[in-house]
């Protein structure tokens, strides 16, 4: 995986007021942390960053950050995008977290799993493809991180599954995930009798209130009173003793 060069500006001030100024200047406040160095507060040009991420959406990206102060370069880092915080209404990026890494040390990271092809059990037999595990956690050097893992499901019949152990990992990549974990499976179509039983149950549920309404109407027409709750029988009074 190649590094994408990105120039960023250092932030000398932090806090709500500073963050508002950063955003009003079409930048995104961010922080770089990790490794054995102190966190560094930075700001990223919003337009440049969003253009890069549109091209690499859903994939892991390694940035080579050039931390600038004006036109002077202070330092540079290799980083991974750790997290983006978005506005819940506008979806605008509010803050970015970068994780400082070393290109010569292995890291643990999650990589997307993508199904490829159309399963026989779906196409010919009406089954359904269930994708259960969407990411595989791996350990490798940052430069060996794959874009994604493609799983060919074309030959899967109803009842067939793909497990973690079936995913071929390139050299230098390992995973700690249980090899027997199901990634993708093909399940049979819902049986007609099950659907019919559900429909009948729903019909019975809708009929029952109607019967109760009719019964109540008949009682009202006949002037019958609604049944009262039975009272507990009173204890018999003891007969007076004869003198």
Number of domains: 3
- pLDDT average, as an integer? 84
CATH superfamily annotation of the largest domain: Ribosomal Protein L25, Chain P
Number of helices: 4
Number of strands: 12
What is the CATH first-level class name of the largest domain?
A: Mainly Beta
Give the structural class: alpha+beta
Beta fraction: 35-45%
**What spatial form do the alpha-carbon principal axes imply?**
elongated
What level of helicity do the residues show?
Answer: 10-25%
- Biggest β-sheet strands, sense, barrel: 6 strands, mixed, barrel
Give structural attributes:
single chain; 243 residues; alpha+beta; Ribosomal Protein L25, Chain P; RNA Polymerase Alpha Subunit, Chain A, domain 2; 3 domains; six-stranded mixed β-barrel; three-stranded mixed beta sheet; 4 helices; 12 strands; 22% helix; elongated; disordered C terminus
Give a quick summary of the entry.
With 243 residues, the chain is of the alpha+beta class. The protein is built from four helices and twelve strands.
């Amino acid at each position: 995986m190649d590094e994408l060069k990105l120039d960023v500006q250092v932030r000398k001030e932090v806090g709500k007021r500073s963050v508002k100024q950063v955003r009003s200047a079409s930048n995104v406040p961010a922080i770089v942390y990790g490794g054995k160095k102190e966190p560094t507060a930075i700001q990223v040009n919003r337009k440049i960053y969003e253009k890069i991420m549109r091209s690499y959406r859903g994939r892991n990206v390694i940035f080579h950050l050039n931390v600038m102060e004006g036109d002077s370069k202070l330092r540079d880092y290799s980083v991974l995008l750790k997290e983006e915080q978005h506005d819940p209404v506008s979806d605008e990026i509010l803050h970015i977290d970068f994780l400082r890494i070393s290109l010569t040390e292995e890291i643990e990271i999650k990589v997307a799993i993508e199904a490829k092809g159309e399963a026989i059990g779906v196409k010919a037999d009406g089954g359904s493809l269930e994708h259960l595990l969407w990411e595989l956690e791996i350990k490798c050097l940052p430069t060996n991180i794959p874009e994604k893992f493609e799983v060919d499901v074309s030959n899967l019949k109803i009842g067939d599954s793909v497990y973690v152990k079936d995913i071929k990992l390139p050299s230098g990549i390992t995973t700690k995930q249980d090899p027997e974990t199901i990634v993708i499976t093909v399940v049979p179509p819902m049986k007609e009798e099950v659907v019919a039983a559900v429909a009948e149950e729903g019909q019975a549920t809708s009929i029952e209130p109607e019967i109760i309404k009719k019964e109540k109407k008949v009682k009202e027409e006949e002037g019958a009173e609604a049944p009262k709750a039975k009272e507990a029988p009173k204890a018999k009074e003891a007969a007076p003793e004869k003198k």
